[in-house]
Specification:
single chain, 203 residues, mainly alpha, Rna Polymerase Sigma Factor, Chain: A, Arc Repressor Mutant, subunit A, elongated, RNA_pol_sigma70_r2, RNA_pol_sigma70_r4_t2, transcription regulation
Length: 203
Amino acid sequence: MPSSRADVEGGCVTVATGGDGIAEAGEGALLTAASLGDREAFEVVVHRYGPALHRYARRLVANEADVADVVQATFIAAWRQLGTFRGGSSLKTWLFAICSHKITDNYRIKRAQPIDDQLLEAMPASQRSGDPFTAASNTAFLGALEAALAELPYRQRASWVLREIESMTFPDIGKTLDVSPDAARGHHFRATATLRTRLKRWQ
């Protein structure tokens, strides 16, 4: 089996496939191994959670180049801070919290990024269909949703994305955004209310 490398100390994070055993390890085993300096274990963390972090960042950061920088900075910070993780949340929530801080550091949020299948799944079921006419309507709806999301305040947009796209609980959203669960719920409520008003013609 080829070994896996994560050049995090050099400022670069790459994804490669390691041995089957470590790739299938549970979160606790991965954290223990990674905190002891096992880069193959950390590489599994990158492979397992990288796509979700990228999805999250691309809706909150102005352009794709910045998205890649934010995600890479997230994993570099996580590698360096592994010794501080005390298990007060899931590994995923901890990584999303670091990513949120990196997004704030990089605060260049100007517009939403291109929509993918996860955002399509968040639209009303009545709007999803395979026929050409409805597909065209879907495109218009998704464009309007993307534009409406781009105009939301950062925490409202982040709360909506984390809840509707990443299916996070409000306690985890709160930990990610460094707010209380009730505040996270409030941000999501206000975002949803605004989106419903902006997208009323599609309801």
